[in-house]
Amino acid sequence: MPAQFPDFRLGKVLATSFTATLTERCGAAVERIPTPNRLVDWLAVSGLAVESCTTAQLAHARELRESIHAAATAAARLAPLPVSAVQVINDRSTEGRASAVLTPEGNRQWRLGPTSSVEDALGVIAADAISIITGERDGRLALCSSPTCQAAFFDTSRSRTRRWCEMNTCGNRQKKARFNAHKRENPGSAK
């Protein structure tokens, strides 16, 4: 993958990992899929490899990403789901024709069609979003506590009390800011 692009933030939940292709939404936003080829890269590392992607398909992918983010944010806040977001998620879900197949190792793998593979991949992502937004999966939707991030994430921790989308980024940044603020207020206490 080209070095000029920021790293992907990959989690265990496909739909929320997809929404993490745009990070720091409430600060200096970071677009992690700025080009069609970069979407191809993300799909490949997410187990949905496609041969190519057009600019129009990238636009559909970003529309789906923002719709999933809007619906997941509303669900995490126990607010009504935005009708337009629901429509986009449903449209992408029904446009795809991917098939789940069982591997010899006992894992699920997605088989995408030869002619509409980006649409198939977006359909898989939309279906995953539907399963987490509807509560079909064990976990809860939550929003990152970082004031610049506010990413929707799927909390599968035992206590369901996770505060950050990623401890290595948002969590560490917030803890460091708190530590530095404490150090400034109490200069002699942090040695």
Query: What series of H and E elements makes up the topology?
Result: HEEHHHEEHEEH
DSSP E strands, number: 6
Class based on secondary structure composition and strand pairing: mainly alpha
Largest sheet: 2 strands, antiparallel
Query: What global shape is seen?
Result: globular
Structure description:
This protein is mainly α. It is built from six helices and six strands. The chain is 46% helix and 10% strand. The protein has a two-stranded antiparallel sheet. It has a two-stranded antiparallel ribbon with strand order 3-4. β1 and β2 form a beta hairpin. α3 crosses α4 and α4 packs across α5. The longest helix is centred in the middle third of the chain and has 22 residues. The chain is globular. The model has no long low-confidence stretch (mean pLDDT 86).
SSE topology:
Elements: H1 14-19, E1 22-23, E2 30-31, H2 36-45, H3 55-76, H4 83-95, E3 99-102, E4 108-111, H5 117-133, E5 140-143, E6 152-155, H6 167-185
Antiparallel strand pairs: 1-2, 3-4, 5-6
Helix pairs in contact: 3-4, 3-5, 4-5
Concise summary:
With 191 residues, this protein is mainly alpha-helical. Helix content is 46%, strand content 10%. The chain has helices at 14-19, 36-45, 55-76, 83-95, 117-133, 167-185, and strands at residues 22-23, 30-31, 99-102, 108-111, 140-143, 152-155.
List keywords for this structure.
single chain; 191 residues; mainly alpha; two-stranded antiparallel sheet; 6 helices; 6 strands; 46% helix; globular
